[in-house]
Structure formats: structure tokens, C-alpha cells
What we know:
Number of domains: 2
Strand content: under 5%
Amino acid sequence: MAYIRGLQSGDTEVLKTVYERYAPALLGVISRMVQDDYLAEDILQEAFVKIWHNASAYDASKGRLFTWMLNICRNLTIDKMRSRGYKAGKATVMDETRLYEDPGKIYDAIRPETIGLREMVDKLKPEWKELIDLIYFKGFTQQEVAEALNMPLGTVKTRLRSAIQELRTIF
């Protein structure tokens, strides 16, 4: 609660503390999504600027501070990945085998044990777990997942909704 009040009041010392505490985990998530350390660091910096400027928008009743910051990072990363410049650069070096990487590697990179996410996602059915991995950890859109898994978009949406509902009951 003190972090939130400090950020909202513009306390730069609190921002420094929040950065030191949360930046490594957030950088891990971003890095896994973009597969480029320099770009990940740029996105993290942009995310903290957004966090700093939008601290008043944080609503504790909707989730934890970390979750709010994680969503900001994830959304900025997805925006960057959907940009023309990113797609043009990736088109020349795209390695399609990344789509089917071992999901365990994803978890190791983002250290979800700090928030208990690994245990929750591991309890899901394999087809739900695969969707969560691709969409939330790798930044794929539902349409991209449907195409990659050769599955109707409606099926992806239904399974994703079921997976999220199950995660809510587990949480």
C-alpha cells in the first residue's frame, strides 16, 4: 500500500524501490515475449514511465500492484510486437520452431514461482495450458494461436475462457 501511495504522490525514492523490486521479474516476462534483450530493456523502461505517469489509475480492488504492472508490460510488448518495424525485423530472422518451445523454459525465464503462477497453470488441462503459454507468455493473439494450432478461432476463445475460469477457481 505504501508503494502505491508513494507512486501516486510522485515520490521518486518509491519509484526507485519499486523498480529494484519488480524490474527483474517484469524484464523476464518481456524478454521471453520478444526474444531480444535490448528491445526488452527498452520496453521495460517505457513501461516504468507509463507506470509512473499512470499510478493514479491503479485500483487495488482489481488486483495486486505487480499484476497491474505486469499487464502494462505485457500490453506494451504486444503493441511493439504488432508494430510494422518489429514485424519487418523479425521477418528476416523468424525461427518457426520457437512456437513449440518447451513451456518449462518459459516458466524458468519469468520466475513465476514468485507469484505462484507455475503451480496454478500446471494444474490445467494440457490443451488449456498450451493456450495460456502461447497467449499470455509468448504474446500471441488468439487468431495467431488458431492458425498455428490449426484450430477454429471460436475453439481457441472457448478453451481460453474455460482456462481462465479454472485459474480463477484455483487462485
